[in-house]
Amino acid sequence: MPSIADPLPPLTGMLGLLDPSYLAFTVYDGEGRIHGAGTCAADVVEMQTGGRPGLAVIAAEAHHLSDYVDLSGEAPAVRRRPTIAGLDQLPDRAMVEVRCLTTGSTKSYTVDDGSFQYDDLPGTYRVTVRRFPYMDFVTEIRL
Which are the contacts of 101, defined by CB distance < 8 A and separation ≥ 6? Predict the structure, then answer.
């Protein structure tokens, strides 16, 4: 029977970060979208894509909702997803979805000029803007 003086076994899983032979990893696709993250033994980091085509791995910690992998530099790097400040400061090719809260009808638009204005029947509308790597932007407008 082990005694209290016996050494503890090596840490695994999330606590593996405390073991120097473990590394944080992030699995991402060709756009920089994060598909998974965790920790593992340093010698198996490259295996974390599971052989799924189109995925790559970086030895870095990230969160799939708030981060992305920036592929624009010499080496991939984990970055925080930027935010959209408002409907007058939209990134190019932003997808805008407008949902009428009264009728439930939805219309979708692509914005290429950096701003979005909406005119319809009087009512309250939920506007959702999506453009990766930006965080989704949601607001309500009253007409």
Answer: 123, 124, 125, 126, 140
131 closest CA partner among 72, 99, 87, 101: 87
Q: What is the CA radius of gyration of the chain?
A: 22
Which pair of tokens denotes residue 96?
């805008």
Taken in order 85, 86, 87, 88, the sign of the CA dihedral is negative
| CB 54, CB 34: distance < 8 Å | no
Tokens of 98: 């407008």
Q: What is the pTM of this model?
A: 0.76
Q: How far apart are CA 27 and CA 45, in angstroms?
A: 10
**Both structure tokens of 64:** 């799939």
Give 61-76 pLDDT, tens digit per residue: 999 999 999 999 999 9
